[in-house]
Each structure stands twice: as structure tokens, then as C-alpha cells.
Amino acid sequence: MKRTLFSIPLMLILVSTLLPLNTFAQDYPQWELPDGAIARIGKGGIRGIQYTSDGTLLAVASSIGIWLYDTTTLQETALFAGDIDGTSCMALSPDGRTFAIGSGNGNIYLLDRVTGIPKTTLIGHTDGIFSIAFSPDGRTIASGSGDSTIGLWNADTGEQKITLSGDRNRVFSVAFSPDGETVISGSADGTIQLWDANTGEQKTTLTGHTREVNSVPFSPDGKTIVSGSGDGTIRLWDAITGTQKTLIIEDKFSVNSVVFSPDGRTFAGGGSDNTIGLWDTNTGEPKRTLAGHTRYIDSVAFSPDGRTITTGSADGTLRLWDAHTGKHTKTLTGYADEVRSVAFSSDGRMIATGHYLGTLRLWDAHTRRQKNIFTEDIWGAWSVAFSPDGNTIATSGDHKNIVKLWDTQTGKHKTTLKGHTGRVFSVAFSSDGRTIVTGSNDNTARLWDAHTGKHKNTLSEHTSYVWSVAFSPDGNTIATG
Predict the structure, then answer these.
(1) Phi, psi angle pair for 420, to nearest 5°
(2) Is 250 helix (H, G, I), strand (E, B) or coil?
(3) What pLDDT, in 10s, does the model give residues 398-454?
(4) Is 81 left (phi over 0), alpha (psi -120 to 50) or beta?
(5) Which residues face 417 on adjacent strands?
(6) Are strands 244-249 and 255-260 parallel, antiparallel or unpaired?
(7) Are 202 and 195 in contact (CB under 8 A)?
(8) Where in the chain is the domain with CATH 2.130.10.10?
(9) CA 61 – CA 46 distance, rounded (Å)
(10) Is the Cα torsion angle 20, 22, 26, 29 positive or negative in sign?
């Protein structure tokens, strides 16, 4: 599985103290809403996809939990959320009864897939979980973490059996061999380690990648390993000798997910070029390319019968493809990247959400439908704010230390506030809409003319980052922190 940035999950919850209970028409199920919440906008950023062994269900891990689909109707049948601190990865047991869910806090949560009831929590890692895998017999769980260790756990009791700590780098991917005797791991330094699953002893190291190894599964017969890396290469390895068999160069694009077909004759890989490639396992020759996603690929999975390929992308969609023809057959929407900031317009009619991957979305607060999307140069979206009249939105992000002003009706960019020398974390309008205040990690707060974008004043008394700014209701006082 691809490594994940642990940031705020996309789970925009609207509570009844803000709007009347009957305000929202529901696009998505309300399963597992927190107390007092009346709606959920969006399904969360995609973290992983997996079919049940019988192919009847498709599980999609998102930043708010696990969505379950009927593969015949493609209708959502359940959402498993529970008390999870940001889903980062997911694995489904071979019998299809247990979800293992990795989180940003280092814990692993086991949930009963049939009842949705939590079974146990695996506690031991000291950093976020990047990858999880069940052994073929379902008795052991392997976990790869940012704390540079691999945990082996008893899947029934939740007890930690072994800690594999020979790796000194973050572990981005883990998998079992088909016979369950070997655990394989891919790390941030580009190395691949093979471990004895019973003793925890390191067996061998595969070297060649120059950046992080994001995905590293065994072929169904256990004879071949495929690895996808941030260095833009896919490599095939002999699982017995550890020698490299094939090198596929994907130019400068990161490879985030690789997977074998059930018969092992084909492997698929997806990454930052927004496409999925299919290759012949024996020859390494390309077979076809699946194109249609508009952002990078997070996850790729074959259905158990090998007829369908499912892909998850940062563009907020799942796509289903005919594995033999490469034809796109279905798109499931509603998934998107993490929300970093949320704001209501003063009349309560609009909601603005700023997203980590650089989009600003406007929603109708009554219908909960998306009205507009802004994508121009607002990577990170630390803060969004409406002007009092609702006609302007101010956004700040990770990129270029600027604030952008947008027309809410037309979606057009109005002006840019330039002057900070660090990221802008917070933005606020004065009550009369004439002045904007911004806070930055350059240790300053700045005042701007909201109409012209001209810099008016700098407040430089802070000795550290200015995370938050606000005007008093009368506009005479500014609070910074």
C-alpha cells in the first residue's frame, strides 16, 4: 500500500446546533455519525481497496473508515467507522470476517465485518501505520510503521508475537508469501527485506531502488516479487535467489501500488502519472494502459476471478475496468482528499472546504450539493474565510506564502495578497469586510485592504508562528495566537 500523509481526515460533519435537522438531503448513508451530527459531506480520501475472497464484496478504506460495496449492484452496503484516529490503511482477513485498520496514531483496530463491532486494538507501534497484511491462514497480522518496525500480531488475541526491527527506516509496505512462511517489507530507503515469519530472523535484502518502496507483493505461486517505488521504477525479483529479473522504468513518476492478477500472468501498477499499466509477468512486456483518472493512483486491486481491475485515485473516484480489454466500465465518486479548513458564509447558505491536495470546494448548505470547485494554486489549503457579504472567499495554503481572493459567484480569481515570507496559516475578514488579517509562520500577522489587496500594516511582536487570527465584532481589536 502507498504511504499516507497523516493529516485531518475528510469528514465534514454538520451538527444540529448549526442548521435545522431537516436541512440536508442525504447523498451518502449516515452510518456511524457522531452524536449530534446530521450529515456527512464526502467519503474521505482513499486509503486502500480489497475484494473479499469470494468476490462478492469490495472494501474501500477511506480516511473516515471502511466503505463496503456489493460487487454486483455496486451499492454501498455499510460504513465501518468506529473510534479510529484517521484510517491510513486496511486489510481484510482471508475469510472476509475481520477488518484490520491502521491509523495515524500507531494503533491497529480489528472490526467484525458482519456486525461492525470492534474486536480488539493492537497497541505497540509508536508512529503511524503505513501498511497491514493478513497471513494466508488469517492467524497473523503484519504491520509496517513509521517507527521503522514491523509488528507480527496474533489475529485472534491481538497479542504482539514478534517485532522486526532490523530496518532503520520507515516501513511503507508489508506482505506475506503465499505459504505464510515469509514476510516482505519495503522501506523509505529503497530496500526490500525478507523475514522469517516464525522466528523474525532477517533472511535477505533486495537492493536497487533509490527511493521509498511503496508496494511489494508476492506472485500467487510465491516465486516472484514485484516492487513499485517512488524512484519511478517497477522491479521483478526472483523470490528464491533475490536476484532482479526485470526493470521497468516509469520515467519520473512515482509508482504507488503494484499487484499481480490471480493467475500471476499479469501485474498492474499505478502511480503519479494518473494511469495504470499492465505488464506480462514472464516477459515484462507492456500489455495495455488504463487512462481516465485525473490525479495520481493510490491503490490497484484485481477481483478474485481476474476479470475486473479496481483503482482508487486522489481525484476522488474509484474506477472499474475490464481486465482483458482495458475498457472502463464504472466510476464510483464521492471520495476526495483531506479537509484542512471549513467555513460557513454569514447567511449560512454556503460552506467552503479547503483540501490538502489543493482544491477549494463550495457547497450548498441546504442541498449539500457541490456548487463550485477552485483548483488554481492553493495547495495545502490551511485556511478559508468568507467575506461578511459572502461574495468573496480568501484562501491560504502551503504554496508561495500567499493568500488568494475568489469571487464566490463566478469562481474567478480576484487578487493575490503577497508579502509573507512563510506559510499563511490563518485568514479572517473584519466585520465590515474592508480589511483582512493573516497569520503566518514568518512570525507575523499582516493587515490588507480587502478590495485592492494592498498591504496596510505588519504586526511583528510574535516570536513564533502565528497560527490563528480573529477580529472582534466591532472591528477595533485583533487577536493573534
Answers:
(1) -65, 150
(2) coil
(3) 567 889 898 888 878 899 999 999 888 889 999 999 999 999 989 999 999 999 999
(4) alpha
(5) 403
(6) unpaired
(7) yes
(8) 12-332, 339-480
(9) 6
(10) positive
Distances (CA, A) of 23 to 28, 132, 397, 457: 15, 40, 31, 42
The per-residue pLDDT for range 196-234, each reduced to its tens digit, is 999 999 999 999 999 999 999 999 999 999 999 999 999
Q: What is the DSSP letter of 443?
A: S
User: Whole-angstrom Cα distance, residue 9 to residue 318?
Assistant: 18
The candidate with the shortest Cα–Cα distance to 14, out of 351, 340, 338, 254, is: 351
Q: Is the CB of residue 442 less than 8 Å from the CB of residue 426?
A: no
436 burial via Cβ count (<10 Å: 0-12, 13-18, 19+): buried
Nearest to 141 by CA among 85, 167, 102: 102
The answer to whether the beta carbons of residues 237 and 218 sit under 8 Å apart is no
Grid cell locating 44: 474521505
Quickly name the fold that domain 12-332 has.
Answer: Methylamine Dehydrogenase; Chain H (2.130.10)
* Residue among 7, 2, 82, 29 at smallest CA distance from 338: 7
Rounded CA gap, 37 and 54, in Å? 35
| Sequence-ordered list of residues with C-beta below 8 angstroms from that of 476, at least 6 positions apart, any chain | none
Domain with residues 339-480, CATH architecture: 7 Propeller (2.130)
Decide: 246 and 201 in contact? Cβ < 8 Å: no
